[in-house]
Amino acid sequence: MKTFFIKTMGSKALLGLFTGVLGFSSLASAHNDAAYSHDYRAVASNPSWMAGVDGNKRVSELSIPGTHDTMSIRAGDAWQNQTMTLTQQLESGIRVFDMRTRHINNRFRMHHGIIAQDTYFNDVLNDIDSFLAANASETVLFRLRSEHTSENNTESYTQTLNKYLAAKGAKRWVPTNSNPTLNEIRGKFVILQEFSGYAPDGKPYGLSYGAIDKQDDYAMSTNWALYDKWTAVKNHLNKSKNGNRNTIYMNYLSGANGSFPYFVVSGHSSPGTSAPRLATGLTTPGWNSSYPDFPRVSCFIGICTIAFEGTNTLTANYIAHSAYNSGIAGMVMTDFPGKRFIENLIRLNTVADYRELRDARTGKCLDFEGVTPANGKKALLWDCANVAWQKWSYDAKTGLLHNKANPAYCLDNMGQPYAGGGIHMWQCNASNVNQQWNFVGNNLRPKANGYISVDAYGRDNGSQVGLWSNHDGSNQQWSWGN
């Protein structure tokens, strides 16, 4: 059994006695910068952030927020890693997960080491399936491994897994390569396989977890090992940013053993979201060169306390700095993620802006049949409702107009670039001239024929939107809305 406690550390503990109240005054100050959260609720609302990401990017070219020991919500400070449920994590924007299963009684119970959680793998698959059904632009990746000891089974790990996937595995991505594009895995979940065996089709169950370039220096000897942990995290962030773009990187911010998991990611004296930081026992200017990335707080007459800082805050700050701007962080796994941590990672992906395209004559929105993009669904007008399927993102480089409900689908002129030609939805292909558009003022024109424009034929809901000769009337004028 591991022992967790706030350890003192020899000379540094003595140093704390000399610094007295000044050295530990930070304990009285609340600290909440939104990179860490111990609240039992969704910390953000980012259910479809991947809709704005270029679907041609491969997994290795993405920056993705993730959680370590995703389902470890119970068992106290020593073993707890999360407060949000899986559904809340998905809503907040987390897209990579760490699923640890104990194979027992021919079932997979979610575990953290010896500690059983109150959930099973079918609960995990149900939550993921529901989320992807509602958010087809997204993908979900999860590490899958066997945890603790197997007990009372009459079938192998993969035989049990096959039963789960037969019931709820329709959205599993079946491997075709070792580094898929986002478009290949939108609306699907991807298993990061950390177990032996093959699926019934003879292929792996997903991507190899072992092939990922990882940093997971989790063993903390004392709280004072936190700076070494941060250094490992920072080095791996830089490795991902500057490394081979065909390599998938994963960076664990978490730690345990000689420190509580919440302390490693927050630097806090207790688990609360706004709890004060712990002091290191060092002060400046005497120890000015120590722990340079840790904050200097509670300054008085030129002497400042050096406080601990958690890896969530340090990472959120580091990737937001201009020196890291537009870098690729890879999969970044942590405990108790906060809104700022999640959204700073999302921003690294250069997320596209999706907005309504409104007809100047009626104020109605460019829409299509139904609510889910699919090949052949015809373009039409409809009252604007601030919904994903009425929002579009224009890529000036390719000329494509992506739909937010599923960015893998684009506006397409059906190969009819002439007056009376139709417009519908089709799977995006940047080399397909039917999907290449130019904005000329407020006119939207196919690149294949600059003498015709997108035209709203009528005024009512359901009126066809097609192509017609340029006349610059209000029904050929389109403006960006919400």
TrEMBL record:
Listed EC numbers: 4.6.1.13
Gene Ontology MF: a single term: phosphatidylinositol diacylglycerol-lyase activity
Keyword rRNA-binding in annotation: no
Residue ranges annotated for the Ricin B lectin domain, each copy included: 351-481
Signal among keywords: yes
Entry superkingdom: Bacteria
Reaction(s) the record says it catalyses: a 1,2-diacyl-sn-glycero-3-phospho-(1D-myo-inositol) = 1D-myo-inositol 1,2-cyclic phosphate + a 1,2-diacyl-sn-glycerol
Ranges of residues in domain Phosphatidylinositol-specific phospholipase C X: 53-194
GO biological process per UniProt: lipid metabolic process
Chain segments annotated as coiled-coil in the UniProt record: none
Uppermost EC category: lyase
Keywords for this protein: Lyase, Signal
Signal sequence coordinates: 1-30
Record-given protein name: 1-phosphatidylinositol phosphodiesterase
